[in-house]
Amino acid sequence: MTSKRRMIVGYAYSILSAVIYGCMPLMASYIYAEGVNSMTLVLLRNLLALPSLAALALWQQKTLKCPIRSVLPLGIPAFFGCVMTPLLLFSSYTFIASGTATVFHFVYPCLVLMIGLIFLRKKLVMGTLISVLMCLAGILLFYDPKESLNPVGAALALGSGLAFAIYVVLLPRFQSKHFSGFAFCFYIALWSSIIMLGICLCTGQLALPTSLVGWGLCLLFATLVTTGAVVLFQQGALLIGGERTSVLSALEPITGVVIGIFVFHESAKPTVLIGSLLVIASSILIAVIDLKHKSK
Description:
Layout lengths: L2 H30 L5 H10 L2 H12 L6 H4 L3 H18 L5 H8 L2 H11 L7 H15 L10 H20 L10 H23 L8 H29 L1 H7 L2 H12 L7 H26 L1
Helix pairs in contact: 1-11, 1-12, 1-13, 1-14, 2-5, 2-10, 2-11, 3-10, 5-9, 5-10, 6-9, 7-9, 7-12, 8-14, 10-11, 11-12
């Protein structure tokens, strides 16, 4: 794959991942009605995706065998990205509105950039910095200052953003010659399932679906989110880097706004529309800068 094609594919993966993630709250609301709680949903979205990920990995690589020394370290990014991030974010919903929590969670593009600059000694690219700042400004416009702000909820949502930023930075560093794309995602989901099952059993929070419809919805959720959005995000990060992928993922709350308007007939505030335009502009800017750089 040429460098330019790699960039285009990485952007396409990241944008599609953000759109699917944006539909996640809508899908989750139907699953919660079937007796499933948020912690069990985090478990099932990984566990039920394992068969499809295994089948895709076998189709792509013909085997799931790989050295244990390569599999064991994958528990680290799985813990931060697929366990701690959703747990902290879902927990924040108990204290603050989901929209407000999303605003605090989406500080993570800035955190990814800061981690790269401080700990990884990455060079500051002005175009990337401008895109991240535009993205952050757009996300902040989603916040309604009239809503009461609980410090515990804000801290949990910020914690989820930090956990996800660490996950984004770690992903490319755990890439191995022993893994194809789907095999890599399979072992991340396997580790996430093991960790999350232990947490659910230890806390007594395991609440499985009470009907076949509930199981079907959970299977669909796992297929779309883990086999779809998570895989696309991981591959996007491996192709174009964590900073760019994190900026593009800010399209997720915009998807939520669109669903609210067309599905729930909600009215969009002018600030939300301006924020959406800023996020879209930041995504276009970083893509144009990258493609021009690759062309040169």
